[in-house]
Amino acid sequence: MPLLEPEPGALRPHRVTGPAPDRVPEHRAAGTPEPLRSELTQLLGAGKVLWKVSDLVRYASDASPYRFVPQAVVIAEDLDDVSAVLSYARGRGREVVFRAAGTSLNGQAQGEDVLVDVRRHWTGIEVLDGGLRARIRPGTTVARANAALARHGRVLGPDPASALACTLGGVVANNASGMTAGTTRNAYRTLSSLTLVLPGGTVVDTADPLADEELLRAEPALCRGLMEIKAEIEADPELVARIRAKYEIKNTTGYRLDAYLDGTTPVEILRGLMVGSEGTLGFIAEVVLDTLPLERERTTALLFFPSLPAAAAAVPLFGDAGARAVEVMDGNTLRASVAVAGVPGDWAELPKDTTALLVEFRAADEAGRAAYERRAAEVLGRLDLVAPVPSVTNAFTRDPHTIDGYWKARKAFVTAVGGSRAPGTTLITEDFAVPPSRLAEACEALLALQAEHGFDAAVAGHAAHGNLHFLLAFDAARPAEVERYAAFMEDFCRLTVERFDGSLKAEHSTGRNIAPFLELEWGPKATALMWRTKQVVDPDGVLAPRILLDRDPVAHLRGLKTIPRVEAVADPCIECGFCEPACPSKDLTTTPRQRIVLRREMVRQQPGSRVLDGLLDAYGYDAVDTCAADGSCSLACPVGIDTGALVKDLRHRRHGAREERAAELAARRFKAVEGAARLAVAAADRIRDRVGDRAVEALTGAVRRAVRPDLVPRWLPQLPGPAAARLPVTRRVGAAAVYYPACVNRIFGGPRGQGELSLPEAVVAVSERAGKPVWIPRDVTGTCCATIWHSKGYGGGNRVMANRIVEAAWGWTAGGRLPLVVDASSCTLGIAHEVVPYLTEDNRALHAQLRVVDSVVWAARELLPELEVRDPAGSAVLHPTCSMRHLGDEGDLRAVAGACAGEVVVPLDAGCCGFAGDRGMLHPELTGAATAREAAEVGECEFDLHLSANRMCEVAMVRATGRDYHSALLALERATRPGSPRSGEGAP
């Protein structure tokens, strides 16, 4: 037994309040039942089948108010896997649902049988025709695709608010549009071609000239059925007119019937039908989209009105003036947005009825923008605006920071309002459209209907297109609340259809909550054609039943999920999934959303439940051990939920008293620990040189087994040798800053085989060269930023070191008169921010006087203006650390790198490396998964320099790429060194 075994049962939630009515039942505790599990495993391989109850639970939730637990989850890697699953399901009478990002708001990404994950292995974009088109795989996010297209001055038409997380497969399958797409730039209008897998396993590339011939050979009944429906529609002029009229405004309710009018062959019809089909007709394996010009010149305003109808009345004025976007946000939305970083705090005091319009004009050049500004000024002069709080300006601006702040508040609509909902309530997101000319009338009617049913909903939306979203919160565990929601939905749907002839779903696609109302909107004839379409394409009913078509009039009330209370830091989560693309462990174990979903299911269970035991058994490794706890999720989350903070607390709970005492003792005697660590690295380095890495790996392996595998790091061949025993000699007199070499740079040396300066030597030399010498205090040894203890959840040790470093830094800097320059970005973040909650009251006052500066920022802002670059390299690729992103320092890294190399590249797939201090030595598989895509992108090109700003992150990238990553400060020192020609990068 290891010496320091985790406390048993420590991960059990403090509040297990079950049994909840929607808990996973006991008979599901074993996970995927037989023979399903063994048959899928035999068909695909064990690595592609997730079967544990914890796997099924974490895939049971998406961004919608529904929750359905699948029987099995398949991680499909290629078309062969997809075809095999469909063939198996058809032969066994099973059902299949495809899931990518899980950001759908109406339950489209949930299934009750076989759920197929098509995110992990389905990413990638190929830019075609100089950017005019793009071939994109379905697991690629909109933001990632647009980042690749931006280099060519192009952009995708659809621009949903969830662009950072939602994937192109879902965008096309739901015909999502967003702020500016309207009815002309959406997926249906910009889709050039797609590759799909039909329920029968047939693969169709609609761009193939022989596609119709091959489809007829493979699926004759399907081809015949589609053409029969087409003929029937075209023979009915009234129906044709109705279909055309329905798509004059935004509409994603039901199947896209105009595909029968726009397509002339079965393949062309299929291409159109797949848009908005929600995975019910086939799997979209690849899309080719036409792109649009990226209009970089913007002028934007956030304009405040006394009421929602007053704001709606102004929308046509801006539309006529040529505004690209006119977004509406009501008072509830504006007040909830205060939770979003950067939003003015005085918005919390806005009067209840206050409403804002976010108006943006975009142009290709300065002349175009100036013309739009003149038009905007004319409109402004005709409006009666209000300024109820000091931050309101009611003016157009060109400032990118201000504009981005406006959009951040708008895009956070669902998450910000959801995060501010009453604890324990379920969030419903509705999305409808009316003719834009009737928007003001619709707003008044909606407000009256909400009041009638006792809801105080938040409203926002794409006002220019007559498209509104609103959020309702209610307790799905209380039958009376569900009945209230049902009554509201009945009245809302009738209001939208019968009074406004509107669309019940404008851009979120039908989903489970509108499927029962499909016939209300389309009428019996068109609805019957949709059912026939499903029968023709999927006669066995394999794909996504009950998601788009459902004859049950109360189907929208089935599967509503309860939201039990969990830890306070995670409780506001609405399970939107915005966090997932940023998570280092997303392709290894769990994501932040899934960690919270699993906690909620634990609370639903009753004590002693076998399901609860199964969840707890898996949670230690899947959720706690393999979390980098770097906080990247908090940057992606619009309301800043830091699941890493939850994980640190859970790690703390697992510690026994003996382990906590040992960690605190290590903090108190860190000078000795630091020296011992450096000696151990030196000893390991000598052993490695003599007999190789395997002996060192065997030794650390034995220690890991004796103490605890998740506590003692393993040896990695990429680890550098020891740092010098002595730091460079500096003088306090005349110093422009205090230089604090982080403990990692006092223990580990620089890149192996370079024969160059150490990082401390380089920082001292380049600062002296710029005329801004730095001073290294003699007593830095034995101090630390406290991240070692903080990241592992050691409370006592964290408090000891946090207070020690602040007291020392206050003395070194003469009470904050000199800046404290720190040479590791994670340590900068730790000293500047993360230590604060653990300080005594007196030391918080001292900390407030400190100026903590990252060494890259010091170099970019203080040294570069005084330096002469003598020997720049040709190119450099950067790995911005997650700490730099927290600090907002990525631009400074680019500036330093730009001085060192003629070309600077940041990989589009750059993200947290997952090394997280020593986490990459405890669980190398985490770093391997986290860096895979970035490493692949780096491997496509040759670079002269590979730069970062944290020693362990550099080790992670060396391990991932085989390239020599090192500090940008080393490169800057070398590039500005007098009289020294550039030496090549050493081998890793």
What is the structure about, briefly put?
By secondary structure, the chain is α/β, with parallel strands linked by helices. The protein contains 40 helices and 25 strands.
Strand content: 5-15%
Low-pLDDT runs of 5+ residues are 983-988
Q: Would you tell me the structural class of the helices and strands? A: alpha/beta
What is the tally of beta strands?
25
End-to-end separation: 37 Å
Strand order, sheet with most strands = 12-14-13-16-17-15
Taking the sheet with the most strands, its summary is:
6 strands, antiparallel
Helical coverage, percent range: 40-55%
Q: Give the overall shape, derived from the CA principal axes.
A: globular
SS summary, helix count:
40
Structure in words:
This protein has 988 residues and is α/β, with parallel strands linked by helices. The protein is built from 40 helices and 25 strands. The strands form 6 sheets. It has a 6-stranded antiparallel β-sheet with strand order 12-14-13-16-17-15, sandwiched between helices. α8 (220-234) packs across α11, α12 packs antiparallel against α17 and α26 (670-691) packs across α27 (693-707). The two termini are 37 Å apart. 54% of the residues are buried. Mean pLDDT is 94; it is low at 983-988.
